[in-house]
Amino acid sequence: PRFCFPQWTAGSEVNVAAAQSFVESLSAGGNTDILSSLKTIRELPRTAGRPVIAIVITDGLATAGVTGSSEIIREFTRLNDGAVSVYTVATIGTANTYLLDILSYANRGETRVIAHGRWDIPDAIESLSRELAQPVLADITLRFAQPELFDIYPVQTCNLYADRPLVLFGRTARDAGARIVMQAVGKAGETACDMVFDIDLAAAPRTADRDIRREWARQRIYHLVGRYARTPEPAILDEIRATAADYRVPVPHEAMIGK
């Protein structure tokens, strides 16, 4: 790994110009060791409450060091434990999206896929950078008054940013009660913050939109695929297939799971 600056650096005009020069000086060469690069990011010093955000721009094809997708996901996710938010930009339509999707989902991020050619890469990076430019609440943890009654994803959420929504998908039994009381706890700089949501299910608007049900199922499957990458137990694979069958959604990256 090569660094533009030896430590965290203020975004002044001088430093931004230095960063632009650094990027322009880069050239292709060597091999791709995704895990070692991610580990180096994880080892950077961190200030409590200040989010560390990594944008990984790659085709996802590891050619050096650890090359197995599930092994990369497993090792980094265990090491990271949600400390670094990993967003990935897949640079070509044939990128290893299994690695990039699950790596980002399991580490407070998401993936953007460049499907139409390399000339779209700058716009994708700029768009994502703008969305992540104003973090509001980091290291979010969700707490429920009766957690056993609800099944909500993602379990480990992204940070909260001023310019992008934070969306959760949940399911509860019809007889679970009329209210959901949820607390979101996180850090805004050095300040510990929390928000309490008291949702009256009886008064909530009803919809017959099946896409919400299917998106909940997709979120659950992504969560389970991430679990399986870290702990490949047959019972988790059974849960993935059962959820896909019950909600009639495809299993993402089915051919790659476990590889």
Cα shape: globular
Mean pLDDT: 86
Distance between the termini: 25 Å
Order of helices and strands: HHEHEHEHEEEEEEHH
- Helix content range: 25-40%
Number of strands: 9
Structural class comes to alpha/beta
Instruction: Give me the side-by-side strand order of the main sheet.
Output: 6-4-8-9
Radius of gyration: 20 Å
Runs with pLDDT <50, length 5+?
A: none
Main sheet record: 4 strands, antiparallel
- What's the oligomerization state? single chain
Total helical segments = 7
- Approximately how much beta-strand content do the residues carry? 15-25%
Verbal overview:
There is one protein chain. The chain is an alpha/beta fold. Helices cover about 35% and strands about 20% of the residues. The protein contains seven helices and nine strands. The chain has a four-stranded antiparallel sheet, with no helix packed on it. The protein has a three-stranded parallel sheet with strand order 1-2-3, sandwiched between helices. The protein has a two-stranded antiparallel sheet with strand order 5-7. Helix 3 links the parallel strand 1 and strand 2. The two termini are about 25 Å apart. The model has no long low-confidence stretch (mean pLDDT about 85).
List the helices and strands and how they pair.
Layout: H1 13-25, H2 34-42, E1 52-58, H3 69-80, E2 84-90, H4 97-105, E3 111-113, H5 121-131, E4 135-144, E5 150-153, E6 160-161, E7 169-172, E8 179-188, E9 191-200, H6 210-230, H7 234-247
Parallel strand pairs: 1-2, 2-3
Antiparallel strand pairs: 4-6, 4-8, 5-7, 8-9
